[in-house]
Specification:
Alpha-Beta Plaits, four-stranded antiparallel β-sheet, 25% strand
Length: 206
């Protein structure tokens, strides 16, 4: 039976140099085997910057992995901070376990609407949509034609050569926009939906 949730233990170390030392001390095999032996569950170990991540499918497995990691690092006199998070499928980010996950369809719809409203508010406050549809056309002429059509509909369009960037305030709007562009653009046009890391940032290939 597949695990239904995503849990993560974040181990924060004082410096990136300590990551290698901590990984060697933890011994990926030792942590994985201990959790598998205790719970019959599999965890995955990753690292980035000055942090090590232990990914698990249940809260119990994540908690056990954290316990093992704490004991191992303490035994090697390696100081670290630990944090437990669960992946929120609506927010699409790691959240505290205290944040409730919607269980019913009505709860999921309400949570999704709250997220959409929040994105829209952020876009309006910044004066620019936080989502974008990026379109690459086979030719400059086709890019110009669709840019003029979308501008005529009141859309904010940036065109560079045969690329278009069209902004939207939230994820629902950008998905609808991308679907519209896919219907109206040539069949070999490439349409991508993106959420730039910085509001106002535009990604256009050189």
């Amino acid at each position: 039976m597949a695990d239904g949730d995503d849990w993560r233990v974040t181990i924060s170390l004082a410096s990136q140099a300590q990551v290698g030392q901590a990984q060697q001390a933890l011994s990926v095999h030792e942590v994985e085997e201990d959790v598998r032996r205790q719970l019959g569950r599999t965890i995955v170990v990753g690292a980035g910057g000055s942090q090590i991540f232990l990914y698990a499918g249940t809260e119990i497995a994540a908690t056990e992995a954290e316990r093992v990691a704490r004991d191992v690092l303490a035994g090697h006199d390696i100081q670290a901070e630990f944090a437990l998070h669960r992946w929120h499928p609506i927010e699409e980010e790691w959240e505290s376990p205290d944040v409730a996950i919607p269980q019913t369809e009505a709860e999921r719809q309400a949570e999704h609407q709250r997220l959409v409203d929040s994105e829209t508010a952020e876009s309006l406050a910044a004066g620019i949509g936080r989502w974008q549809a990026r379109v690459e056309f086979p030719s400059h002429r086709e890019a110009v034609a669709l840019a003029r059509k979308l501008e005529g509909e009141g859309r904010s369009v940036v065109r560079r050569w045969k690329f278009l960037i069209v902004r939207a305030d939230n994820e629902d709007d950008v998905q609808e926009l991308a679907a519209q562009i896919s219907r109206e653009a040539p069949p070999d046009a490439v349409v991508r939906v993106e959420e730039p890391g910085v509001v106002g940032q535009i990604f256009i290939p050189s």
